[in-house]
Amino acid sequence: MKRSSYLVLATACMLVAFSCQKGNQAEPQPKEKTEWISRTDTFEENYALEQMIVLSRHNIRSPLVSKNSVLTRLTNSTYQWFAWEGAPSSLTAKGERLENKMGTFFGEWLSKKDMLSQYGEDNYRFRFYANAKQRCQLTARTFADALLPGKNPRVEMNVQYDSMDPVFNPQITKITSSFTAKAQNEIQEMFGDLNAGIADGYSLIERVIDISGSPAYPDTTSFSQYPSQVGFSLNAEPFMTGGLKMACTVSDALSLQYYEEPDLKKAAFGKDLSFEDWTTIASVKEWYGDALFTAPSVAVNVAHPLLQVILDELQNDKRVFTLLCGHDSNIGSVLASLDAGIPELPGAIEQRTPIGGKLIIECFKGADGNNYADLLLVYAKAEQLRSESTLTYSNPPGGVKIKLNGLQANADGLYRLQDVEQRLSDAIRAYDEL
């Protein structure tokens, strides 16, 4: 045999042997994914989650007013509203089930971050604190039990049940003539004519409820016939007069009916509405809430006690997880106080503070030794709410990053923790300067 043939045969044998040896080696297993929000490729290598603060809106409730109030007067007399269970403004059974699913998802999230193992019987590392209203207490209770099954963690209630805790009460606690003038100017600059700015929403709602066939017609032909105005009183929430207040009541009830009623056509009183139509309907109540609570001077006034609690929790180096459960006005005013930008919320009909939604501050320790923070808005998407989908990493809730205007994020999209704390301190100090 020629020498060249020997070389070919030897090379072939070596390749076969190498191939067999490689095939016998265990394939490297992919590292378990612990992030579900979109991050940079090296994020998990460079940052460790150490603390999470969650400001939550309660989950699905019944409307704030009974069916025999303004809803009945403004709706075609032949239409039937959803048969709500319980008293007005109460968390519904569906709302409770949905919050259980959200708490379970957070349990999966925090377990992957090895944070749940830090829960102790003294409950100091984990705090659950809610407004005393039924819908807030039950939301927090349900979330806590789903997050820590079998642990029965304490949910704080610091005032009489079903009353408003001052921490969560979005009330004006400092009022002067200069504050009122400044706040009204801010509202005018941000919203202009309150009715004109949401006219498309008015028109759609009036068509859905068939206002022309209602008991209020012809005295009331449109929401826009009543000029809308925001007012302020000491130790009370900002208030609204005019057509926007009426329209908000109907918008709120229709949005809740959309979540609870399985038949979409029935939820719309026989109309065929698109997802965009439902978003337009929900935008009316969000316009109302923004007009009341998000003007800069108003926001730092009504959010003042809550901002103090959030900063205290952020600076508590013993705390691992905090849930603060309140209302959409709480999330809206806190975001406005921090000069935060809210991006589009994919899959949500409520584009500002979705039902059951959660504003989250995550605190990370970087591989460089520095502390960082990220802000997220996490929410169940409309279809997840309607279908009561189980929330998991394979079917996660919606989640978007919140930008703080004027702050520079690093290459991984995180802010320096001290800058976020300073933003909170500035908002707290702004109250003293009102």
CATH topology: Rossmann fold
The geometry reads as globular
Order of helices and strands: HHEHHEHHHEEHHHHHEHEEEHEEEH
From the N-terminal CA to the C-terminal CA, the straight-line distance is 99 Å
Q: What is the CA-based Rg, rounded?
A: 26 Å
CATH class equals Alpha Beta
Q: State the low-pLDDT regions, or none.
A: 1-24
* CATH architectural group: 3-Layer(aba) Sandwich
The fraction of residues assigned to DSSP E strands is 5-15%
- The average pLDDT is 93
Indicate the percent of residues in helices: 40-55%
Q: Biggest β-sheet, characterized?
A: 7 strands, mixed
Count of discrete domains = 1
CATH fourth-tier homologous superfamily? Phosphoglycerate mutase-like
Tally of separate helices: 15
Structural class estimated from helices and strands: alpha+beta
The number of distinct β-strands equals 11
